[in-house]
Amino acid sequence: MSESRKRIFLVDDHTLVREWLLALFRQEPEFEIVGQADSAATALSGIMALKAELAIVDLSLKSGSGLDLIKDLRLQSPTTQVVVLSMHEEIYFVERAFRAGARGYVTKRDSTSGIMEAIRAVLAGQIYARPETLALLTARMVGHTSDQPVGVVEQLSDREMEVFRRLGEGQATRKIATEMGLSMKTVQAYSARIKDKLGLANASELMREAVRWAASRQ
User: What pTM value is reported for the model?
Assistant: First the structure.
């Protein structure tokens, strides 16, 4: 019986979310949770060692980046499919996740039935997101986005966006460097590029803008 069950790995830095997912999957005999992790590095090694067929990944992790993890999985464990389960509802996060290699995207506001639908669809070889999200992604691809203005943060690269998000959460440069596995100089370089792209005069303005952006999304 266990050999026919689909092997699932959970990646989220909130214990409560992982416990909720574990309880959800206990009601689904076709799936088996083979492991879980709260950081990108632990997740990558665990997924590869346990030969997970699908990983459920949060984009915002305490240590490492969910987007970087998805990119690493695409290169190092290409048979592992990824469904993103995230608090981020903005279309540019969805777009970045698919570009990184995810096959499905659901938010933590979605129903449990929607989450299971996404997992089954991706394991069946399909791409999954809510219909309105897929429609908006298609419109962006063909340039028909006049009713969806581009936010300034969309100019940022994936790494710059991660640094910006962490600044908005009040993390200091040293903490960001440690949790992203980067040097302080690299984080400072990312911060300088963010400041230039957003047209901000100094580090204080950068911090205020990051905090304002983070608060607007809660």
Answer: 0.79
Measure the CA–CA gap between 34 and 64, rounded to whole angstroms: 21
Both 29 and 122 in one domain: the answer is yes
Residue 129 CB neighbour total at 10 angstroms: 23
Residues 114-166: pLDDT tens digits? 999 999 999 999 999 998 888 888 877 776 554 444 466 888 999 999 999 89
- Which is it for the CA torsion 132, 212, 102, 150, positive or negative? positive
Domain range for 74: 2-142
Mean pLDDT of the region 13-20: 94
- Point out the domain boundary residue: 142, 160, 185: 142
- Looking at the structure, tell me whether residues 131 and 162 fall in a common domain: no
Integer Rg of the chain from CA: 18
